[in-house]
Amino acid sequence: SSRTATIRVTATGATGSPADVTVTQAPTPVQPVLSVSPANRDVAKDAGTTTFSVSNTGTGTMPWTAAVTSGGTWLSITSGASGTDTGTINCSFSANTSTSSRTATIRVTATGATGSPVDVTVTQAPTPVQPVLSVSPANRDVAKDAGTTTFSVSNTGTGTMPWTAAVTSGGTWLSITSGASGTDTGTISCSFTANTGTSSRTATIRLTATGATGSPVDVTVTQVPTPAQPVLLVSPANRDVAKEAGTTTFNVSNTGTGTMTWSTSVTSGSWLTITSGASGTDTGTISCSFTANTSTSARTATIRVTATGATGSPVAVTVTQAPTPTLIPVLSVTPSNQAVAKDAGTTEFSVSNTGTGTMLWTAAVTTGGSWLSITTGASGSNSGTITCSFTANTSTSARTGTIHVTAGATGSPKDVTVTQAESSSGLLAVSFSGLGLWVYNSDSIAWMQVSSTDPENMIYSGSTLYADFGTLGLWKWDGAAWGQLTSSDPENMVTSGSTLYVDFGASYGLWAWDGTAWTQLTSDDPENMVASGSALYVDFGTSGLSKWDGTAWTQLTSGDPENMVASGSALYVDFGVSYGIQKWDGAVWSQLTSSDPENMVTADSALYVDFGASYGLWKWDGAAWTQLTSDDPENMLASGSALYVDSGTSGLRKWDGTSWSQLTSANPENIVTLGSMLYGDFGVSYGLCKWDGSSWTQLTGSNPVKMAVSN
């Protein structure tokens, strides 16, 4: 703008004083000046932003505009493209992927302003040279047959990239045929052999470009396997089996490759059944069962084994069963034993012909006839039922009766048994020196003196007590009163059932008392005798060993036994050092051992033998010997499945069939069993004691001389 200054001139007293005069100055004309800074921006190769500052360094008002005049493909103004006087131009730029720098220009224009227009620049640094190794594809899946395949190599970076290729795994079947090296781009060609295996396989090619990003690169060739081909094998092709029912097997295997799932079926032969192995994978066993062939012709069943897709499938194998010979009956009686209670009752056995033809059979009680009888079914044809009745067992020992079934058939005759449990009650007769004869009732747990005279010997038959009073003869105690049977003095007595056998020595020989009358069996004088069932075995010394069957005598051997025990129909005889232990089964002799025993006892079909200090105690179970202990027993008693052994100073022990248990360290003078109870005579130290299976009870402090138990 223009401006004015005033000068006052004063002249005192003069007219016209003071006088003012002015100076008026013209203004400076308005002139904007355009300024943009900086003149250039240097930026990195990566994408980013930068700015420029605009200002008016002159006068007046200066409108301005900005625009990219070169490099617009990579530089753009994001804000501040126009303004007045001062302002900021904001611009963005993309990454420079080339290996050369580049410059873009921004022109700023302010019309009428001094210095307008102004060009400023953005200079962007280049990307350094960097090759990048790329190989495609990463894997080639190829077929099992021999062939070729390729991989493409390229430099996706900058600069020059030399490269090489080599097989690093699978070189036995994959090889590079061309393109093992190159520059930048190229093709690797490789060949492969056929894959005859059942598993896929993979080979690796490694490409190396030194200095290149991504180097090295591993690519793979995966070749599929040759499809598996199972081969079905079933062996044997045929099984020949017997006519009886039974089982047989076939083996299945995969002799090829891969997995083979198989199944079976019986395609002919309703008499054959697959019991296990009806299906499986690869190997396995087919188990099958077959019924008896009752026909007189052989028969064949077929099993078909199928494995879908397997070579050789399906396979048919056969089972050929022998015929049953024409009209051969086979006797079968079941069960072999009936275990019955002590009370009176009935039981049954089934008879059948498991062979061919017609079978006529008969049945009879051969042992135990005093308490066991056949009520119906004593004879029949082919199938039938034997019904038998039995009386109550009042004795304290189990008893066994035998039924003998005979038929003109294979397997005849057959013996089946009825085993009756013992009564829980019983009587123990004990003579005390100078105190007479007493009877202990295990039911009432009471003593009763039955005689003031001491017997020389005594034995029970059921609940009847027979006592040998020496010169006073032989007497019978029936539980209430005495009756004299004879004034003669016996040397030995044994009982079987209700029969009493008495050896009266050289004067009178051997007699039997049936409860009513005496019968002389022989005038000979026995050295020893044992009874079992209806049989009496007698050792006549140098005259040998004979058997009395209730009707007649049969000499079993001319040998002279040293000892003998009986169990059922079996007789075990000790013939000393000459012949050892021999067994008589009712028909023939068989030697069990040549060793000479010191003592023998039997129970439950088992034979227990004391072979002395040399060999100890052994058990014979009917098939083999088992040593129970190397100790030498002084005495032993068998009852049921238990064996009680007096080991002298080592005390009294029990064998339960599995292990030993010590009952007492005291040494008994004698032991007997009554039912499940054990009675021990421990002499003057402890008297008579009872073992109930868990503890001892003293019955009397007196010292027994002899003991006998009811049976």
Structure description:
The protein is an all-beta fold. It is 2% helix and 55% strand. It contains 4 helices and 70 strands. A 5-stranded mixed sheet has the order 4-11-10-6-8, with no helix packed on it. The protein has a 5-stranded mixed sheet with strand order 13-20-19-15-17, with no helix packed on it. A hairpin with a 4-residue loop joins β44 and β45 (482-486). The termini are far apart.
Helix content: under 10%
**Which radius of gyration do the C-alpha atoms yield?**
62 Å
Mean pLDDT: 92
Low-pLDDT regions: none
Report the sheet with the most strands, covering strand number, pairing sense and barrel closure: 5 strands, mixed
Assembly type: single chain
The number of helical runs is 4
**Structural class label:** mainly beta
Outline the fold blueprint.
Elements (H helix, E strand, L loop, with lengths): L2 E7 L9 E7 L8 E4 L2 E4 L4 E9 L6 E8 L4 E5 L2 E3 L2 E7 L8 E8 L8 E7 L8 E4 L2 E4 L4 E9 L6 E8 L4 E5 L2 E3 L2 E7 L8 E8 L8 E7 L8 E4 L2 E4 L4 E9 L6 E8 L3 E5 L2 E3 L2 E7 L8 E8 L8 E7 L9 E4 L2 E4 L4 E9 L6 E8 L4 E5 L2 E3 L2 E7 L8 E9 L6 E7 L6 E6 L3 E6 L4 E6 L5 E5 L2 E5 L5 E4 L4 E5 L5 E5 L2 E5 L1 H4 L1 E4 L4 E5 L5 E5 L2 E5 L5 E4 L4 E5 L5 E5 L2 E5 L1 H4 L1 E4 L4 E5 L5 E5 L2 E5 L1 H4 L1 E4 L4 E5 L5 E5 L2 E5 L5 E4 L4 E5 L5 E5 L2 E5 L1 H4 L1 E4 L4 E5 L3 E6 L2
Parallel strand pairs: 4-11, 13-20, 22-29, 31-38
Antiparallel strand pairs: 1-2, 3-5, 5-9, 6-8, 6-10, 7-9, 10-11, 12-14, 14-18, 15-17, 15-19, 16-18, 19-20, 21-23, 23-27, 24-26, 24-28, 25-27, 28-29, 30-32, 32-36, 33-35, 33-37, 34-36, 37-38, 39-40, 39-70, 40-41, 42-43, 43-44, 44-45, 46-47, 47-48, 48-49, 50-51, 51-52, 52-53, 54-55, 55-56, 56-57, ...
